[in-house]
Amino acid sequence: MENKSFGFLSELTLDPFIIPPGGKYPIFFLGITIYFFGIFCNLTLLTLIIMKKNLHKPMYFILFSLPLNDLIGMTAMLPKVLSDIVTETNKVYYPLCVLQAFLLHMYGGGILFILAAMSFDRYVAICMPLRYSSVMTPRVVICIISLVWGLDFVLIVSLFSLQTRLPRCKSVVMNVFCDNPSLLKLTCGNRTVNNVIGLFNTAVMQAVSVSVQAFSYVKILITCVATRRSQAKTKAVNTCVAQLVILITFEVVGTFTILSHRFKNVSADLQKIMGMLIFLVPPLLNPIVYGLYTSEVRHTLLRVLKNRVSV
Questions:
Q1: Is 267 left (phi over 0), alpha (psi -120 to 50) or beta?
Q2: The model's pTM
Q3: Which of 147, 209, 232, 245 is deepest in the core (most CB within 10 A)?
């Protein structure tokens, strides 16, 4: 007989943080400050790209996906965690749990594919400057952006669709937010196929992203060494450093997150915090790094602020 407690609309329990007395409100206000700061920075970058015609270029149309992806990641994770800390409910309905996990995995894959697309754009701009306009046409840019989001969507959907083949027999999510591994632990039966496909999808994302970026940056480095124009070298470095910093930040935080779950002596709360960092650190740093290292974005923002002050 079917156990209705594990039906589609059943309620799940999240594993909460252990917070000392009097600590939940300071943690909540710190978290909400971080959240609104990240929202402000990413919305500022999005608004600049939309409103300023000097940023209506292939590079920035592709860049537009990065703060958009960061907003998805932060919003899918942090408000729910902060709400649970204050209300001490730690409950979520299964469909909302699946939706949160889906968006968080879309965010993770999105960063990798977006950075790959951005590195390809820089490769064309720096290594083939005379052909840039003919290569990076509006049609090509639309195809690149569609490929980034389309490939990410297909891989994540294929991962989550496999969960429907397994019966669910548990209702406690061993994390403060929902992700695919946590959802998979709620099921009973043979999970081998799910684990293999999960590893395969992760390998595909990493392989595609890293190979495209490695090719692009090696070609850019060769071009920089070969050219005698110091101005061209400086421009190449400034446009690529931001992307490399973002990639390294994401990979380092992701690696620490994975390693934190591999050592038994790491506390459960620290593992949860490490898991949250991957959805907090990149969205907070990405718009700042891009604003600092990309002169066109920085100068556009400064002009806007100067005009506001003068008015």
A1: beta
A2: 0.89
A3: 209
